[in-house]
Structures are given as structure tokens and as C-alpha cells.
Amino acid sequence: MPFRLKHHILQAQQGNKNIREHLIAKHKKYILQTCSSICNRYLTWENDEELSIGLLAFNESIDAYDTAGKTRFTTFSYSVIKKRLIDYFRSQEKYHNELLTASADTQEFEVLNNKEAIETYQENISLENLTILIERYRIKLDEYDIDININNLPEHSPKHRDTRETLQNVSRILINDPDLLNHLIRYKQLPIKQLMVATGQSRKVLEKGRKYIIAISIIFIVPELAPLRKFSKFNIDRGELI
């Protein structure tokens, strides 16, 4: 995290109201994008209470953030905003669908079963929503200690087609096995031993291809990232580039 941002957060934590207001104002677009991503629809400051909740949660994250830690402030604030919005969804019966999406870590398969809704969402993606999705993708990858995004994923792809196809097949097997997938989501790590048995691949192949396997898998297991699938050029049913 840049020193200046860290310094400003420390000042805000020590009671500097002007710096706190500056931080909030500077990050209003980020708050808007984050809340819209979590709610799976575009929000406006004039009409949507979710943004007020996101604003309060962002302010809360300033106080709770550990400036001495390694976690990025945007990653930390995202988690705080998401938790507060989930609390809000739970208090409002009409937000059942948003709760399902926001609680993706435990309910991904149920949401993904609605293929028609996902396809419709893919068709309606706008440039602004794409920017939000790519940022969400980057934040999600950061949870797995992967510092790449969909724009430079090809740079991290294996050079040889056979290797790419092998790792894509591993990803397909991982995604379609609930036990393997639950391990990935819970521990943020590939279940190497189980994958060795399920795929017949060596530890060396799986560990070397870890980032590539996870980067592909995340696009297919997080419902709100569904529109990014067409950019990955990866067909999950056949496990190959198209």
C-alpha cells in the first residue's frame, strides 16, 4: 500500500476529521463500484440505501484497518462493506437474491444453477460494469495471494498448448467436484493431494500451474464474475480454449 494512503489512514484513526472526509470523498467511486458489484446491479447515491450502508462500512474500515499488516486497504474495506450489506440483506426479505449472490462462498452452486439469469446478465454487461467486475476479480484473486487479473492472465498462461489443456482440465475437474471446490474456497489453496488422485497429475505440475488453475476457476465459481467467462475463452463444459 502506498505510504501516503497508509499515513492518511493513521491520521484519520488518530482523530483527523478532515483527512477522514478526504479519504471518504476520494473513495466514493470505489464505494459505488463495490456496492454495485456486491448487489449485482448499478446503484445511485440519490436512490439506493445500500450506498449509505457502504459509506458507513467504508468509514468503519478506516478505523479497523491494521496499517502494519500486509492486507491491502481496498481488500479489507471490500470485506467490511460486503459483511455490512449481507447484514442488511438478511434484514430485508425482498433482498433474497442479493443475499444469495453476496454469500457466494457457501451458495455458489445454487446460484449458478440459474443459467438463464447468468446468460442475460452477460448480454447486458456495460463498460462501467466491466470495470467493476475486473476490479472485483482482482480483489478475489488477491484473497488467493495471486496478483494478476483478466487483462494479463495470458501472460501467466503456459506457453505450450498441451500444458494449457492439462491445467484447464484440472480446473474443470476442480470446479465440478464439490469436495475439491469447498477446499479451495475454505482454505484459499489448491487441494494438491486430492487433485493428484482425481487428475493423475504430478505435484510439480499442479504447483507450477497453481495461479493459472485458480485464476480460471474463480471466474466460474463466483456468480457475479460470470460475464468475464467470455473473456477467458475457456469452455468449462469441454475444459478447453475456444
Automatic annotation (TrEMBL):
<protein>
    <recommendedName>
        <fullName>RNA polymerase sigma factor SigI</fullName>
    </recommendedName>
</protein>
<dbReference type="InterPro" id="IPR014244">
    <property type="entry name" value="RNA_pol_sigma-I"/>
</dbReference>
<dbReference type="InterPro" id="IPR007627">
    <property type="entry name" value="RNA_pol_sigma70_r2"/>
</dbReference>
<feature type="DNA-binding region" description="H-T-H motif">
    <location>
        <begin position="192"/>
        <end position="211"/>
    </location>
</feature>
<keyword id="KW-0963">Cytoplasm</keyword>
<keyword id="KW-0238">DNA-binding</keyword>
<comment type="subunit">
    <text>Interacts with RsgI.</text>
</comment>
<comment type="similarity">
    <text>Belongs to the sigma-70 factor family. SigI subfamily.</text>
</comment>
<comment type="function">
    <text>Sigma factors are initiation factors that promote the attachment of RNA polymerase to specific initiation sites and are then released.</text>
</comment>
<feature type="domain" description="RNA polymerase sigma-70 region 2">
    <location>
        <begin position="23"/>
        <end position="93"/>
    </location>
</feature>
<dbReference type="Pfam" id="PF04542">
    <property type="entry name" value="Sigma70_r2"/>
</dbReference>
<keyword id="KW-0346">Stress response</keyword>
<keyword id="KW-0804">Transcription</keyword>
<keyword id="KW-0805">Transcription regulation</keyword>
<keyword id="KW-0731">Sigma factor</keyword>
<dbReference type="InterPro" id="IPR013325">
    <property type="entry name" value="RNA_pol_sigma_r2"/>
</dbReference>
<feature type="short sequence motif" description="Polymerase core binding">
    <location>
        <begin position="49"/>
        <end position="62"/>
    </location>
</feature>
